[in-house]
Amino acid sequence: MSLADAGMRAMEVRDLVAVCALDALCQGSPWTKGQFRDELDRGEDGFCCVVDAEPGALAAYLCAWIAADELTIGTIGVDPARRRCGLARSLVWCAHDWAISRGGAIAHLEVRAGNAAAIALYEALGYRRVGVRRGYYSDNGEDAYLLLADLPGVEVK
């Protein structure tokens, strides 16, 4: 099943309440509605998508942006009841494809040091740890690992 078959589509302003609710469920330090709105306002430099679970409910979301040749994955979340079904992996792949089509060569993100499941996913997608941001998360002071990946099919100079 493709993400389109699963209900993946561009995030819209009408999704912000549902995205914020899902983000609060998924993240210890959820984004505000304004932060998500700012991502939508990036236009062509931003990639914001959602996966519909059913009318009025979301299964997953991702926000990313590109600057020069660098893709930044800002936030991603999957409804806990729908995890381990490949949604996060597929969303990241879509973000990679989007970035490559715009000249992206590398991708990076921060992940909680204690989030073993997310770290394993990102490592399986070719990310490697390149740094630590000490006390990065405001809710509990947890460190973040900075992960970096070379985008597939792109020669890094």
Describe this structure in words.
The chain is of the alpha+beta class and 157 residues long. It has one domain (8-150): Aminopeptidase, CATH 3.40.630.30. 27% of the residues lie in helices and 33% in strands. The protein has helices at residues 16-26, 33-40, 87-100, 116-124; strands at 8-10, 46-54, 57-67, 70-78, 106-112, 128-133, 144-150. The protein has a seven-stranded mixed beta sheet with strand order 1-2-3-4-5-7-6, sandwiched between helices. A hairpin with a 2-residue loop joins β3 and β4. The model is unreliable at 1-5 (pLDDT under 50).
CATH class placement: Alpha Beta
Continuous helix count? 4
Order of SSEs = EHHEEEHEHEE
Given the helix and strand composition, which structural class is it?
A: alpha+beta
**What percent of the residues sit in helical stretches (DSSP H or I)?**
25-40%
Short description:
The protein has 157 residues and is α+β, with helices and mostly antiparallel strands.
Question: Which descriptors would you attach to this protein?
Answer:
33% strand, 157 residues, 7 strands
Write the layout of secondary structure elements.
Blueprint: E1 8-10, H1 16-26, H2 33-40, E2 46-54, E3 57-67, E4 70-78, H3 87-100, E5 106-112, H4 116-124, E6 128-133, E7 144-150
Parallel strand pairs: 4-5
Antiparallel strand pairs: 1-2, 2-3, 3-4, 5-7, 6-7
